[in-house]
Design brief:
This protein is mainly β and about 130 residues long. Helix content is about 0%, strand content about 50%. The chain is globular, with a radius of gyration of 14 Å.
Length: about 130
């Protein structure tokens, strides 16, 4: 069956960096667009970033643009989220997700409901 397994979360201080990983199995990884979402306590899940299946196109939420970078390695069936200059408001559970449909609208990928598969999440806590 399909599995998406996130790792790399932890407790860091404001200004630090973290790199999250999401290892995929049970699916043809290069056929899927991969996204990262996050959910803070008491808040709705929100889009963070997405990278198209070729790796050449990516989109970011305004709140992370310039600080976070999404990268994929199709040979390793893994997508990464490099997070720099972390802020306390980045504290959340981070989830990766896989979506097979191709849309030319970036806004399509900001909705969690379109994604086919989800990981279990990894906690990121940023202290001030």
């Amino acid at each position: 069956q399909v599995q998406l397994v996130e790792s790399g979360g932890g407790l860091v201080q404001a200004g630090d960096s973290l790199r999250l990983s999401c290892a995929a199995s049970g699916l043809s990884f290069s056929s899927y667009h991969m996204g990262w979402f996050r959910q803070a306590p008491g808040k709705e899940r929100e889009f963070v970033a997405v990278i198209k299946r070729s790796g050449g196109i990516s989109y970011y939420a305004d709140s992370v643009k310039g600080r976070f970078t999404i990268i994929r390695d199709n040979a390793k069936s893994t997508v990464y989220l490099q997070m720099n200059s972390l802020k306390p408001e980045d504290t959340a559970v981070y989830y990766c997700a896989a979506e097979s449909w191709t849309s030319y609208s970036s806004s399509y990928y900001t909705s969690g409901s379109v994604y086919d598969y989800w990981g279990q999440g990894t906690q990121v806590t940023v202290s001030s």
